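Holo model, flavin-adenine dinucleotide. Inputs:
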Amino acid sequence: MLGKVTVIGAGLAGSEAAYFLATHNCQVDLYEMRPSKKAPAHHTGKFAELVCSNSLKSFELDTATGLLKEEMQILDSLVMKAAKLFQVPAGQALAVDREKFADYIDKTIRALPNVTVHHEEITSLPKDGLVIVATGPLTSAKFSRELRRLLGVEQLYFYDAAAPMVLKSSLDFNKCYYKSRYDKGMGDDYINCPMTKEEFIKFYQELVRGERVKLRHFEKEKYFEGCLPIEVIARRGAQTLTFGPMRPVGLERENAPLPYAVVQLRQDDSLAEVYNMVGFQTNLTFPEQERIFRLIPGLEKASFVRFGVMHRNTFINSPLLLTNKLTWRQDPRVFFAGQIIGVEGYIESACSGLFAAINAWRQLQGLEMVALPKETVIGSLVDYVVKANPDNFQPMNANYGVLNSPLKDKMAIAELSLAKLREWRDKYVDCLSGIL
Ligand SMILES: Cc1cc2nc3c(=O)[nH]c(=O)nc-3n(C[C@H](O)[C@H](O)[C@H](O)COP(=O)(O)OP(=O)(O)OC[C@H]3O[C@@H](n4cnc5c(N)ncnc54)[C@H](O)[C@@H]3O)c2cc1C
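Output:
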């Protein structure tokens, strides 16, 4: 064994980190506070639980999220393995059966003989050894306070929301129909609830007036633009819905007029029983969600498996605090990874866990820590979070804007990125098949 690493949090980032380290001859102490202490958006005690959408976004190589997924596979990502095994139809998106996905990751990690799992809340940083902090956007209150004390700067935060899920058997298929936008994927991956103009107006008026869960006195209304609650989008004007999450284009049917607006439902489990409402993350109270969302044609008798929720979302001021190896500037034995560093998204969080683990593994061997190639999405994201303006730092997801490539053609960008990452892996991360 090379030595021990403590990983705090077994979410997307912590699971990737623990798996990499354990399959590369390291002892891992993995701390996860669930299920004894519940995180506000999680429902199980399983590792790598997806808290909201079951979509890991596009897998097409000409998108930054698609390219990031290919990069993750070059680095032997456990999250990508699980996603591919438990994929459900979702057009050009990689969506998964969330239960099976988490179950696979959970069992795979627990089965590794050199991983010791502690179901405990960490409230202070371990004093010795290498540590990867991957406690996510919902880092427990006690540990958040301790981090704020240690890091010496106010942590930043914003709000993030999750969408409701409904049972397919409760939908009215005299009104709903199957179709993916522009027939992508299998062509019929989504269930659509079409609205006439009159139906939309009635729904819209109720949505903007709907009662919301009150924020606590110390909480400011501050959102991530990429994941706004549907009622907040609506308050910016009706067209932000009909040109946004409820846009009908590409969803026309033969012999039927183009709907004025459409609510899309995406399959959430492999049995196709549970569907989530795409783009309908919300902070409406539960009774209001039931009342207002049942105005959507086809959902009049919808049975809600889960209501939408909104939570505080914690992240640190990485440009001030972290190096491009994801170590804390003040103490290189401490790494941060996942959404707490200010990346946004499941795959983005997972990839930073994998990268932190690679450098922890190198540090344990007395090897120099290494930065990622700047031509890759994963490298550009890390670069962005450690170099952004600290006065106005906001979480970032994978996109071509952060990838500062000299090339214009997206497929050429992808080819270059994958070639650079393979080269990097071969040079700095050997034995990728595992050394158990
Ligand atoms: C409500 C909400 C909805 C979201 N929806 C989406 C979405 O639809 N799509 C998307 O791509 N991204 C979404 N995100 C953003 C983000 O991608 C996910 O939160 C992702 O799970 C982050 O991965 P992570 O590993 O950093 O954190 P997590 O997956 O949250 O893992 C952190 C783990 O640390 C544990 N933990 C926390 N504190 C402690 C402690 N003190 N001691 C021990 N364990 C601790 C937690 O229980 C948790 O298991 C959402 C976030 C939130 C909060």
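Residues 432-436 have pLDDT under 50 and may be disordered. The two ends are 10 Å apart (CA to CA).
Archived with the compound record.
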